[in-house]
Amino acid sequence: MLKETELLIEKGEMLPLMEEFYTIQGEGYHTGKAAYFIRVGGCDVGCHWCDVKESWNAELHPPTKTDSIVEKAKKYANTVVITGGEPLMWNMDYITKKLKDSNIKVHIETSGAYTLSGQYDWICLSPKKNKLPLEEVYQSAHELKVIVYNKHDFKFAEEQAALVGSKCELYLQPEWSNREKMTPLIVDYVMEHPKWKISLQTHKYLNIP
Fold first, then answer.
1. 47 annotated ligand-binding residue
2. Within a domain: residue 74?
3. Over the stretch 20-49, which tens digit does the pLDDT of each residue have?
4. 26 lies in which domain range?
5. Alpha helices for the chain (secondary structure H)
6. Does the annotation list 194 as a binding residue?
7. Coiled-coil segments, which residues (predicted)?
8. 124: annotated binding-site residue?
9. Does residue 186 lie within any of the structural domains?
10. CATH assignment at residue 138
11. In a domain, 175, yes or no
12. Which end of the chain has less neighbouring CB within 10 Å, N or C?
């Protein structure tokens, strides 16, 4: 049985599902839009400020049949956001095809550290210093969202912006625990460098998932 599960996971027909919920997109380009979130367990990027560290260990999240995940998503929304953890640790070809076959728009939020699998209407790349994105993800990204925890992150953001396509939307987002200190600096930075926009975690202000 275990071997059969491993094969299904390899093909993307099962995924280590952490949680799934219907809410309002709180960050980046699509802020304010209704979407169904599918959070997949497993991540080895290891950001010290991560607000979903419980997602890191995939073994804590039971392998779930992808078909059942898709069926539930279809009841709620015409847009699905696949997030994590780091979803590209897993094969996303099967789930994205199933969703798109049902005329659902598919977005992904990724660090870009793993090979891009799946078909997407929107790719939000949120690069991390611990494990940088692959070139193919830089070139495919529709949105670059850099989390700003300290002043050095502005330099990192510019380095990352130089690697994405010319039409990629650029966002700076204050890390939540340090937002009071960093938000004023981001405001000043965006006013001086207007190619950037500000992303806020509005779902946390609204007290929704």
1. yes
2. yes
3. 999 999 999 999 999 999 999 999 888 877
4. 2-145
5. 2-10, 66-74, 93-101, 135-140, 152-161, 179-192, 202-205
6. no
7. none
8. no
9. no
10. 3.20.20.70
11. no
12. N
